[in-house]
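I'll show an entry:

:::
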Amino acid sequence: MENKGYDTEMLAFHVRLLSQMSRADHYPFMKMILEKGLKEEEYQEVLFLLHTLHNKYEDQKEEGLLDYTSLLIHFAGMLNMKLHPDDTIEALRKEGMYVELMEEFKQIIIKDRYVETRFPVKAR
């Protein structure tokens, strides 16, 4: 059998993920993981990042903070290079994972894009 860039460890991981999915359209994040070819270790790193950021978000929210831009920057900077932050946020939100945090991130991105279009920075 020809090896098409998949090692057996990654293939076994992908089969386990697929077996958990009854319909791929209900699992956009899992679908993204498969399409981008993340290995199990990379997937676990993303989950750890999300768990850590969610805990920080809950702590900051409890302290009364209203701006979570630093968490979004941390997320974008530490996210696996195979994944795009915007697509990952949307996929996680749709899949029902860390929804409140993903909504915060989405609102920050929308606000920043609005500011950029309303008040573009001119090159000198």
About this structure: The chain has one domain: 8-118. The mean pLDDT is 87. The chain has six helices and no strands. Helices lie at 8-19, 28-36, 40-62, 69-78, 85-95, 99-118.
